[in-house]
Amino acid sequence: FTMILKTLLSLLLLCSTFTAAGAFQPVPSMMNQQPIPRSLSPTVRQSKSAPLGMTISEQEMEWMPDFSSTLWTAASDYATSLEPIHTAFSVATFLTQPFWLLMILLPNSSITKKIMGGLEVPLLCCLVHFLIVSSSIDQQGSGVTAPLSEFNNVFDPSGDPQQAFMGMVTKYPNFVAEEWSHVLTWDLFVGRWIWLDGLRRGIFTAPAVLFANLIGPPGLLIHWITCTLSGKEILESSEKQEIENL
């Protein structure tokens, strides 16, 4: 399973790099060009790739569709469309749910420890978010990605940040995808920390992890309450001292 996660991480990183670097550049399609009539064709010759007895003229070969160009054009159209972001949105939404269930229902299982003990799953979510962001940057000016200038209104204390944020949510579909995957990734990161803390110190974490998945920050509050009721601090004094000594 770890190898599968690493493969997915590599593929997502490759796709994200291609998209961010603008690797899918449009190539003029040759499919709409009219073929030259055979009556106007120059002397024909035997094609190495054609079946025995089939002849293709020089100019006809030049006008044949360039399938590699067509492939890159199709890839470019896909990369600059909304489809990759729609797909990544669904991946961000549903990919993590099995891992949440493992931490909630089987927190002490060796399978859960093996899968969630490392950072492969959170990093995979980070790459999905990066793919959405990089694809959105490639669509600047298309009316689906919020211009960076509009973020100034969200962080303007003299204005109405909530209204500015709602305006971007309703106007720009890509902004919703970016923020959604952003929130889900950090929810998983915090939920994983709660689960690990419970393993280390013998604290029951199922309710806290569940709420971290459902509504985010209240999950951490529930973990704090659980720790307090268990007679343990959410951050022990020894850990605080270690941090101060860094």
Plain-language structure description:
The chain has helices spanning about 1-20, 60-65, 65-80, 85-95, 95-105, 110-115, 120-135, 150-155, 160-170, 175-200, 205-215, 215-230, 235-245, and strands at about 45, 55. The chain is mainly α. The protein has a two-stranded antiparallel ribbon with strand order 1-2. β1 (about 45) and β2 form a beta hairpin. α10 (about 175-200) packs parallel to α12. The chain is globular and about 55 Å long. The protein starts with a helix and ends with a helix. The model is unreliable at about 15-55 and about 70-80 (pLDDT under 50).
Shape: globular
Instruction: Round the Cα radius of gyration to an integer and report it.
Output: 27 Å
Output the strand order for the largest sheet.
Answer: 1-2
Q: What is the percentage of strand-forming residues?
A: under 5%
Helix content class: 55-70%
Helices and strands: which structural class?
A: mainly alpha
Distance between the termini: 36 Å
Low confidence ranges: 16-54, 71-80
Number of helices: 13
Mean pLDDT: 76
Biggest β-sheet: count, sense, barrel?
Answer: 2 strands, antiparallel
Element string (H = helix, E = strand) = HEEHHHHHHHHHHHH
Work out the number of β strands.
2
